[in-house]
Amino acid sequence: MQHNPVIAASGRTILLVDDNPVNLGVAVDHLEQHGFEIAVALGGEEALERASFLQPDLILLDVMMPGIDGFETCWRLKQNPETQAIPVIFMTALADVADKVQAFGAGGVDYVSKPFQVEELLARVNTHLALRCAQQQLATRNQALQAEIDARRAVEQALVASESRYRRLFETANDGILLLDCRSRAITDANPAMARMLGRLPDELIGRRLADVPGFERIGVSPTAVEDLRKARFLHYGDWALQPASGAPIDVEVIGSFYQDVNSDIVQLNFRDIRERKEAEARIRYLAHHDALTGLPNRTMLADRLGVAIAHARRDGEMVGVLMLDLDHFKTINDSLGHHVGDELLEAVASRLRGCLRESDTAARLGGDEFVIALSSLAEAGDAERVAEKVLAAIAEPFLIDGRSLHVGTSIGISFFPGDGEDAGALLQAADTAMYAAKENGRAGYKIFSKELSSAAQRWHTLSNDVHGALARGEFALHYQPQIAIEDGVLTGVEALLRWHHPTEGLVSPALFIPLLEERGLIVEVGRWVLETACRQCAAWHAEGRPPLRIAVNLSAQQFYRGDIVATVNEALRVAGLAPQWLELELTESLTLDETDTTLRIMQDLKALGVTLSLDDFGTGWSSLSYLRRFPLDRIKIDRSFVRDLTTHSSTAAIVHSILSLARNLGLDCVAEGVETREQLSHLQRELCSEFQGFLFSEAVPAEDLSKLLRLLRSGGSLATATILPKLERLPA
Ligand code: C2E
Ligand code: CA
Ligand code: CA
User: Fold this and answer.
1) Which residue's CA is minimally distant from atom 46 of ligand 1?
2) Ligand approaching nearest to the C-alpha of 586
3) Are both 423 and 572 inside the same structural domain?
4) Which residue segment(s) compose the domain that 555 sits in?
5) With a 6 A CB cut-off, is 530 part of the ligand 1 pocket?
6) How close is the Cα of 487 to the center of ligand 2, in Å?
7) Which of 388, 404, 409, 511 lies 20 to 30 angstroms, CA to CA, from 500?
8) Where do runs of H (alpha helix) occur along 581-645?
9) What pTM value is reported for the model?
10) How far apart are CA 69 and CA 77, in angstroms?
11) Residue 366 located in a structural domain
């Protein structure tokens, strides 16, 4: 509401317009006497200016004036928005009706005749001032009214917007939402999500009492429940299973809230679909109890199952069997063929294990390549042995992975309840002990736990701990086993074989500690030492005089793939000052598992150094004969298991015959390992095998002993006298 300051101050300001000063003087006198404030203008132009500036409450306007006359002045006042509301009373000497009409036509509200009658003038002035005042009040009230209307309209619009916003939220909410009237207990609203959850239309819900809606029969809203909610305003009711009109129950989380509407109390129930969360929880529970790779139960679940099985067996007087196994060569496969192949192999093993079991048995993966089978409710130990045999046979079958045929063996340790332990932990420990005994026994077999094995296991444990610092403590040494040309009995070379002088255990077999070194990743470092020592020793023998001999060094797969074997070999030769043709590298068959270009390339790089390569333990494993053609080999070593049976098994003799003729065909030399008898040697001689190695001539001996032998040979001694080498210490130095 805007106030005009001049009106507010007096409400009685009058602009008097007349060109006649006498007239003006008279009028001013009268009006001022009656308390009016008077301003004057002597002509139309001046009047327009002053009116616009002063904003008088009334204008008394003479008609006849020089310049623009009264009518024109009035007309212009009415055109100007600033002045158009000011009432104009004409002062006229004219008695002509036409003039009076023209006065109203120009926008005047009244007229007074000159000369004026004072009373008439005052009456008219007062009347029009009052009228103007009333008009202004009306306008002000109108404005206020309009403002109120505008404000209401704004509130209404905001309400509509808010309602539609909340409607939209309600309609599109993922939660199912029900609104209940507290008094009638009827549903007053239900959103589409709620209807969807129940498999109904919202209209089928609205107006019904909650307990009458199928799926909610058991969920009445009691007066006390409402009272609780009224107090708390917000309550979490936990998880329910909502039964829709059809289909499986839906897991929901229910939240109640209370609020007051204009004339009713409302309970709002939110039903949140938590099936995804439940699935995630189940998945996490599953992962906590299963091995992610194979899906087999993990250690935690195995312990649970074993616990249950032990309790049953105790009650029913039955047995529980625990089979522990790991895979031979698994590390080599992982290293040489990559983890994806290792992973696939583990999955394949898991599925074969499952195939060996009854419903009530459990196969679990403990990690790495370690698996356990728990056999519940056994009648006798023989049942477990039969499972072990089944498992051995299943794992022995080649695995076809990534287009390759992989052969892995396994060794199994078995323990039983009752007898070997009272709980899961003790049984697993006993089976583990038995497994290592099985390994020591030679691979691919099983062993049943016995108390005696414990000390062996203890020993294994000690060794496994001590192997770490063995190199630094200088506990390793090399022994050398001669290799002899069969045709003329010339000593052509020696194989360097690693020995560990353990401070308390004595001399430990490499068959036992090489796997430990491999497991701990120490073989690369120790292998480098072996290479350096062997090369140095060989160079030293060469320096002592003719004839020069070859030195053979065993390489393990990790050295081949993990260390920079080519640089290591090169460096060992350089430091020792040994010509490369005198160094032979023995590669085990597990190396050749990987037929990839990497293997071939490394072999070629080694050959490029000038060293020779031989394939160790030939025939034992799975090395296919095609390797012989693909790889740049110089020699193969016929495994001692063949030599052992050579003279007693005709089938073995046949195999050896084939190997030798194939080798000749490919231009490869052959060394027969483990020759212990004259018969074996004669047989090999007839088969034209070029060299042999074995106890018949000598076992591996320390460097000094071999030095004595070399001196003996150089001084004209014969090999025949040298066959007593193990007792060399009795020979003259
Ligand atoms: P290998 O390479 O097959 O070595 C031959 C093994 O047969 C040696 O056992 C040797 O003492 C044994 N032997 C030799 N002649 C006869 C015989 O007439 N009869 C019998 N029964 N055995 C005989 P050793 O020294 O215990 O070595 C066992 C294995 O340990 C070796 O088998 C080799 O695979 C591994 N090894 C030894 N030294 C090293 C090494 O420096 N590096 C690597 N990576 N492995 C090694
Ligand atoms: Ca060897
Ligand atoms: Ca061998």
Assistant:
1) 554
2) 2
3) no
4) 465-714
5) yes
6) 22
7) 409
8) 597-609, 625-630, 640-645
9) 0.54
10) 12
11) yes
